[in-house]
Amino acid sequence: MSRDAGPFYRSDIDGLRAIAIVSVVAYHAGVPGTGGGFVGVDVFFVISGFLITWLLASEVRASGGLSLTGFYARRIRRLFPALAVMVIACCLLAVAMLLPITDQPQDLAESAVATALYLSNVHFWLNSPGYFDPSTDILPLLHTWSLAVEEQYYLVWPPIILGVIALARNRKWPFETTLLALATVVLAASLAWCIHRTHSDPGAAFFLLPSRAWELATGAILAIGLPHIAQRSRPVIGTLCSAVGLAAIVAAVVLLHDDMALPGYLTIAPVFGTGLVILGGHLAGRNPVQAILSTRPMVFIGLLSYSWYLWHWPLLAFARAYGLDTRNLPRDLTLAMLSLLVAWLSYRWVENPIRLGRPGPFQRDRSTLKAALGITLAIGISAGLLTLWARQAERSPQFAELAAAKIDVPPLRSRCHQHEPFERLAPAAPCIAGARDRPPRLFLWGDSHADQFSPLMQAFAESSPETPVLSRSMSRCPPAVVHIWRDPREEAACHAFNAAVMAEVTSMRGAGLRGVVLSARWLRLFGAPRLYTTDTGPRLHGSGLDAPGNLAALEETVRRLTTAGLAVIVIAPLPEMPYDVPGCIARRGTGRCDLPRAAAEEQRREVLSRLAAMQARHPGMRVLDLIDALCDASTCYAERGGTVAYLDDHHLTATASRSLLPAARAALLHATADP
Predict the structure, then answer these.
(1) Residue 109 in contact with residue 387, Cβ under 8 Å?
(2) Strand 537-541 vs strand 621-624: parallel, antiparallel, or unpaired?
(3) What contacts 661, CB < 8 A, 6 or more positions away?
(4) Residue 495 burial (CB count, 10 A)
(5) What does the pLDDT average to over 585-608?
(6) What is the mean pLDDT of the chain?
(7) Is 140 helix (H, G, I), strand (E, B) or coil?
(8) Beta-strand pair 639-640/643-644
(9) Cis peptide bond upstream of 235, omega within 30
(10) CA separation (Å) from 490 to 132, 285, 422, 499, 503?
(11) Are strands 469-474 and 432-433 parallel, antiparallel or unpaired?
(12) What are the pLDDT digits (tens) for 234-249?
């Protein structure tokens, strides 16, 4: 607990904060053995709930009331200036570290505004693929989601306490008993909701307050109950609580990992473990665990924990963004330690002077609230200027060609490519390439990796007037008509989309449809190794997807189509690059962003083997491999003949897609031929 806790101070809680922040920083830096280090945030939630509720309850006991203005002014002086300095610094750093042709500057600007409003958890829930997705490694303000959760909780909790005070006066209900009962209800309801949402909507469960309130309520229950438990009266029990609690936290840091269903019931260990450590220190203040946590190094790190939390992640994210999303343990550890120095400077020159000295507008409570509005406006202006810079820079001669590649998307995408939630298929006519007065003879079906081939299909239809092609695609939805990996909402939407497409394909069979082209991100679907980058080049890392189950799902689709008398073409996966291709060319230059053919073949080896075995079982299926159109014997090119091949790291540009027609024509003609 920090030294701003008034007359009540426990140095061991600052040590507990040190455990939490070291766990988080180690996890973010990629230190082996800290795969569950993200639970440090859960430890912080419990500590915060304990500290704030203790202070609020103490104020009620002392004065019989509660000043909301004073409470929020204290929160602003304690937290907001340091946060604002970090956010504005990120907007400035972005000019040097982020590429204007990517979405990164705009994403940062939007998240900066959300952070200033303490809504960044909602922003990242709506706009990111999830906290644990590798793509979030380069979001400098991702970590502010937890700060938003806390502040949203404290917008609600103090007014609730005021309501309990009123009940205690009017109905003569015992204040602390009522508040304790209410906090227990919050804990039970929020925990149940958390466990439920972890399985039905994991993004919401992770980022949003209703699934996290139980963690803060755990601390609140301790704050209300501990004054009624005699201190140091049960040292053996206190020592046992502290030891078990610390062991639970450490076990969570070591044993949990981001492939698990989180937060869910697994978060109970670090949350209740933190509660046990706090309880143990109350029952036996000088037990061995508390003695370790109260050492000067632990307390020192605990005092810096807020500032270290603020600064460590932006430095890591900017370094990874500048290095084209590379992870490098020595570099990241160095930056993690550098961020500790920055944290000390922030603590010394921003946090303490404003919190303790209360200079200028921070002197009085009401003027502090007005200062917060000014700080929010300053962050908004910084975000706006960053957006203007990015828009201007991407039009410069240095970036214009690469910016054009980033938006070289399939022409049919805006009106035909579908997203979750799914309601009905888009009208067919606008999604047909070639003669629209004829029934389609070829059907393209899949996820965004099918959509990337719609320009190829358009080129084919234009060159073969008798073969119109209908395209149907949906984000993150492979063409499988049975269970597939995903969160439940996406799975339901994908199932509905695929059922509608299968019905449409079946209905068109008698009207002239001859063949179906299936494409998806097979490298992910079949659990193939994921390509990522280090400073020494591309590496492969295994994925945890259910390859056998997904293979069976695809094979069921192939079986139904071939049984209906349709020719089936499955497009083999093209190489996935270990970096955003336009960004790499902008950062490194042409010729330094290519991928060795051997690495691409190793990446695809397992998938090709599975597809070949499937083809042998289904004579009506054919695998179309287009890799030779993008690669020679030694190299897969990021840019070739003036054409940028990818608009990101795994989607072709529309221009590159159309260029595949010579390599694909024979297979497509075969699929559209009459039996």
Answers:
(1) yes
(2) unpaired
(3) 456, 459, 460, 463
(4) 18
(5) 92
(6) 91
(7) coil
(8) antiparallel
(9) no
(10) 17, 50, 9, 14, 20
(11) antiparallel
(12) 788 999 999 999 999 9
